[in-house]
Specification:
mainly alpha; 20 helices
């Protein structure tokens, strides 16, 4: 156990030094970002409460909807945890640079594996606290359970993390035992794409849009039975959901059996992982030291593409952008994730074709305007997610070669803005395709089409700048897996700030659009006072957009200049 303590101690010491021994400027930055995180959690709590209160207003099916929402949230968190642990375990167990030193230390393989597994759990699970806690607290606020609910949420989420970690780490060890670690990374990305495709097909076969259309069912009994369709009793998420729901509603059964089943599964996975690690972990680590074989193909096409893309830039900046293009297409873990994102975008667009707008009791043109604003928010969030994976990681992707760029005649400011403009055009195309197609499927008015397209056009400038700026503010030039950079503290912070930016723009534009809509419906002219408010709202949105462009770029440039 002494060896395990020595292996884990540096991680905690480093974290403590960051909090206690940081400079005043960094402390202020931490407090600022913590405030933004609390604001984001508060927003999630408020939205979750509104949804649950609305569910409770629906007689007969309110609790059923809330129960299914909880089940969907737990299943989503569990799936994300498994994928996150697979990716993080590959880096922590096999590809980290300090592993050679650790393996040469006089410690047992089991102790080294347990320490690395603990690091994997910490790196992959802290996001659950940020995104999950406000949702569970919203359930507590609406249903007013006893004190036992909070203890149940705490220990059942801990069990869920252990189970997801056990599955992810076990799968990673098996894959590395069969394939080299470098090849395993490619296989994991392929499995992720296939898994996402399978989940989407399952989701579409369920046809969830029917649940908002009771006329699609012959009787109320059929409608309620469709809502109450149970999940598989063999899934850990079902045991966790039954236990939490029972504690939330105060059911007499208490679901002690499901809780015991969850924790025995977690304990069994821990023991199985240690047994498997004792047999195959060191062999897998030895195989991970093999060099990765690469195949070079399509070189002429890639050279031609890079030549035309870098033509607007001068030779110094063009060389950097050309390198980024070649690295992207030669690394299959990059473009395989791009294919996954394209598939998700197609799914996003397709879902608008199955919305039963004609069956809604709300006036159609009013509903279309509401959905158009929600669509702007959703499309903006999709763009922020894409930016988190590709734009935010653009600076960190340089790796140790960043010091070559830093020592070159290329000015740092020009380098940073060059990265910005190289991502701007693809993101603009993606944004306009998303908003135009979805608004066309919604059948919005010409005014809303122009407003949405123009708003998304200008918001892209801010989202890309936030990605580049925060990527420069929180770079990671030593990461073995660039996808892991996006899931770190800086990536999550970028998503929070981007969501707040998108929300502020939409809220500022909602008031003027509502005034214009009511004026058209009632046939009354817009007063001078209303025109002043409309002008001020759009002016505030423009100022916030400009701040989102220049403020993060300025902070990122300053951080890179001070980076050592």
């Amino acid at each position: 156990m002494k060896g395990l303590y020595l292996l884990i101690k540096p991680r905690f010491s480093g974290f403590r030094n960051q909090l206690v021994g940081s400079q005043n400027g960094k402390r202020k930055r931490v407090f600022l970002m913590s405030g933004l995180g609390l604001a984001f959690c508060g927003g999630m709590f408020t939205v979750s409460c509104r949804v649950l209160i609305y569910f409770q207003s629906a007689e007969m099916i309110g609790d059923v909807l809330a129960r299914h929402l909880l089940s969907m949230i737990i299943l989503t968190f569990f799936s994300l945890l498994v994928f996150s642990h697979i990716i993080t375990a590959l880096s922590n167990l096999y590809l980290s640079r300090d592993l050679e030193l650790c393996h040469s230390a006089p410690v047992d393989v089991e102790e080294l594996f347990i320490s690395r597994a603990a690091f994997t759990v910490m790196d992959s699970s802290w996001m659950l606290i940020i995104f999950g806690l406000p949702v569970f607290m919203a359930y507590a606020y609406v249903y007013r359970p006893g004190p036992g609910f909070y203890f149940t949420v705490l220990h059942m989420n801990l069990a869920m993390v252990i189970i997801a970690a056990g599955i992810g780490i076990l799968l990673t060890m098996v894959l590395v035992h069969v394939f080299p670690a470098q090849r395993t990374r490619d296989i994991i990305m392929l499995l992720t794409v296939l898994m996402m495709g399978a989940l989407y097909l399952l989701f579409r076969f369920l046809r969830p849009e029917r649940l908002v259309d009771p006329e699609a069912f012959f009787t109320v009994a059929q409608y309620l039975s469709a809502l109450k369709a149970p999940q598989s009793s063999y899934l850990p998420t079902q045991w966790i959901m039954e236990t939490i729901w029972g504690s939330l509603t105060g059911s007499k059964g208490g679901h002690l059996f499901e809780a015991a089943l969850t924790w025995t599964t977690a304990a069994a996975l821990v023991i199985i992982n240690v047994w498997v690690a004792r047999a195959v972990y060191f062999k897998g680590f030895s195989k991970s030291q093999e060099a990765k074989k690469r195949r070079v193909g399509g070189r002429r096409v890639l050279d031609l593409f890079a030549k035309y893309v870098t033509k607007p830039f001068r030779e110094d900046l063009g060389a950097v952008i050309s390198k980024d293009i070649r690295t992207f297409f030669r690394d299959n873990t990059q473009w395989s994730q791009l294919l996954l994102l394209v598939a998700l975008v197609v799914v996003y667009i397709y879902n608008f074709t199955v919305l039963p707008l004609d069956k809604s009791p709300i006036r159609l043109d009013f509903l279309q305007n509401i959905l158009a604003f929600l669509n702007m928010g959703l499309a903006g969030f999709v763009l922020a997610a894409v930016s988190a994976r590709f734009v935010f990681t653009a600076i960190s992707a340089e790796g140790e070669a960043y010091w070559i760029v830093r020592s070159s005649p290329l000015r740092l400011k020009r380098y940073l803005w060059g990265k910005y403009f190289s991502f701007l055009l693809p993101m603009l195309v993606l944004a306009e395709v998303l908003i135009t197609l979805t608004n066309h499927l919604l059948g919005v008015s010409r005014f809303m089409m122009l407003l949405s397209s123009g708003t998304m056009f200008f918001m892209v400038f801010g989202i890309v700048a936030l990605g580049i700026g925060y990527g420069a503010l929180y770079p990671n030039f030593t990461s073995q897996n660039i996808a892991q950079v996006a899931s770190g503290f800086g990536g999550v912070l970028f998503m929070i700030v981007s969501s707040l930016f998108i929300g502020m723009i939409i809220v500022l534009e909602a008031g003027p659009v509502y005034v214009v809509f009511i004026s058209n419906v009632r046939g009354t002219p817009i007063t001078a006072y209303q025109w002043i408010l409309i002008t001020l709202s759009f002016l505030a949105a423009f100022v916030i957009n400009m701040m989102a462009i220049f403020w993060p770029m300025k902070m990122g440039l300053k951080a890179l200049r001070e980076y050592e």
